Structures are given as C-alpha cells and as structure tokens.
Amino acid sequence: MKLKAENISFKYPSAKDYILKDINLELDNKKIIGLIGDSGSGKSTLCKILSGHIQKYEGEVKFNDEKLPNKGFKPVQLIYQHPEKVMNPKWKMDKVLSESWDVDDATLSEFGIQKSWLTRFPQELSGGELQRFSVLRAVNPKTQFLIADEMTTMLDAITQVQILDSVIKIVKQRDMGFLLVSHDMDLVDTICDDKIYFKDINGI
Ligand SMILES: Nc1ncnc2c1ncn2[C@@H]1O[C@H](COP(=O)(O)OP(=O)(O)OP(=O)(O)O)[C@@H](O)[C@H]1O
Ligand SMILES: [Mg+2]
Q: Is the pTM of this model over 0.85?
C-alpha cells in the first residue's frame, strides 16, 4: 500500500501566503513514520489534505496510484489533534462511534472504554476518554492508512502510552499504514521506524 503526495501546495482562502509549497512524500505500510515540525508550520493542514478532508489544493494525493475518493468512506483516516472540534456535541458517544462502524465489546475494552461512557455527550468526557473514541472511530475495518495528528499531546504520559500501544497493536494486526505527527522527539524515536522533518519537505 502506498500513500503519495505529489507537489502539494496550499494556502487557506482567507490567507495571503502559501503554507505548503511543493511537498512530495511517499508513505507505505512497511514502516511507521514520524513527522516532526514547529507549531503552526502546516502539519495538521497537510494531514487534512492527505486524508481527503481538504479537497481544494494544488498537486495530487494518490492512494495506491489512484486519487482519493471525494465521497464515501475515506481509506486514509485521520485522528484529529482536537477531537472535540469534530464531534457533534448533540450526539451521544454510541452514535458518534456507530456513525463510523459497529465496534465490538473486545475492541471497546482494548481501548479502555467503559460502557457507561457510551450514553454521554462529548462534553461530558475528559480529553483522554474522548481521544479513545476518536481513535476507535478512525480504525474502521475499512481503514487502510491511519494518520495520528498529535493525538496524545494533551494527555498524561501513562494515558499516552496506553492509547498509542492499542493503536500500534491494531495497526500491526491489520497491516495498516501509520503516520505519527508529533512534537515529541522521544515519542517518535520510541515508536517510529523513521522520521521526517516537516521543514525538509516544505519548500517554503
Ligand atoms: N482554517 C484555517 N484558515 C486559515 N488559516 C488557518 C486555518 N487553519 C490553520 N490555519 C493557519 O495555518 C497555519 C498552519 O496551521 P496548522 O494547524 O496546519 O499547523 P501545525 O503545524 O499543525 O501546528 P501545531 O503544531 O500547533 O498543531 C497556521 O498559521 C494556522 O494559523
Ligand atoms: Mg497541528
């Protein structure tokens, strides 16, 4: 499996300057790659492009040599940096989850999710509890490539390791590709096979 970015350039419609310029990147499911870069440099923006959440940009993203689908299920799933920003506040967690897939009890417990959380709204959960749902939503059985955008930044060290362990386990079981975006060099060195510095690939 191959996720390829070809000459990606992008600027937000409201901004005057480009934040991404001529980015080329090739990822697969053989190695876990860590992407490291300064705050505000455009990592999350690139993640949104790679996963099909931003669709108007210059250049091309290809998954297994084909363009990403504009509609329907996205084979490249993004675990957002801020899960609370992308969950419907009016939906209880069981609906938030089942919108993606019917998660079995074993997977719920692997991710440390208590059944009682399923009947709560997003704002009634802690950051770590919410992030577990966000991860689970992204690991739909149809997911082929997973991008984790600073998914554990706000969590304490123990919770961070627990969640990441569960993610890596499922990535290996299902032979998915995995890109980890992080500020944390130690974390990247521990988890990833290789690392990429964002400033080295962004031609800005
Ligand atoms: N929707 C938006 N409209 C306009 N500008 C935006 C939007 N989202 C982000 N930006 C700007 O684009 C730049 C890159 O943001 P982005 O979130 O991609 O950075 P990042 O590398 O992920 O930062 P961090 O490490 O803090 O998460 C920032 O200057 C940000 O203010
Ligand atoms: Mg970011």
A: yes
